[in-house]
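#lab-general

N.A. 3:47 PM
ok so I finally got the sequence cleaned up, no stray characters, all 150 residues accounted for. can someone with queue access submit it? mine expired

B.Y. 3:52 PM
send it over

N.A. 3:53 PM
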Amino acid sequence: MPLGCLYLRWDIFFRRLTPEAQQELEISLSDSGLLLGEYMELVERAYQQAYEMQGLSAGWNRMDFDATAQKFAADLLASYVWRKRLFSMISVGEQALTRANLSGVLPSKIRAADLSRAARYFKSSRSRRQRFRLRERVHAQIEEAKRGRK
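B.Y. 4:20 PM
back already:
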């Protein structure tokens, strides 16, 4: 039973961030591998869920709404990041398995330890560079969102 659409003013939100808070947001998003658009979509979804619950429950005040929305957002973000990392690890394992098969190794000779070692190598060798690029990208997206563009 939709009660309407909740609209968040992201441009105002980003303009009100202190430089330290913006830097903290950029770091946490890049460490978790989230793009700004993914973050914004998940937070909007959480606020929409809280808004719908508020309409169904009489007697809610603003503090209850904010606390509920923040809880929904934290849960959504944590589960989304977990699924994204799991998918990444699965794809790295599949790539390692494909490379092993292309090199002529018999399937019975491929050990799980080899695949996990390849996944660890992939994660450690690229993570710092990828996090830096992602942080730069998130920073640019936040600056653009401050100007009112999504």
